[in-house]
Design goal:
By secondary structure, the chain is mostly helical. The protein is built from 2 helices and 2 strands. Strands 1-2 form a two-stranded parallel ribbon.
């Protein structure tokens, strides 16, 4: 299809319109939406953060706990500390 342009303004408008139509009608490698790039990087960041949270939760479970109170807690494990208050 051939289009003739009478002035520079019409040419600019038709180029912009044609490029947008090509991107929409003929998706291909290289046509990248700006929001899809950000989404992928955010997803990767969330995956890494989730892994780090899991690692820290496991480390926290194995860390000795400190309890304070007048009665000894039932869930004391090896390494935990109980401070008896009077």
């Amino acid at each position: 299809m051939v289009k003739f342009h009478g002035d520079l303004g019409t040419l600019k408008a038709n180029i912009s319109t044609s490029i947008n139509l090509c991107i929409r009608d003929f998706p291909a490698i290289g046509w990248v939406r700006g929001d899809s790039i950000a989404k992928e990087s955010v997803e990767n960041e969330l995956i890494l953060a989730k892994k780090r949270i899991d690692e820290l939760e496991k480390k926290l479970e194995s860390t000795p706990k400190i309890y304070a109170g007048s009665e000894e807690p039932e869930n004391l494990k090896n390494g935990d500390i109980w401070l008896q208050t009077v």
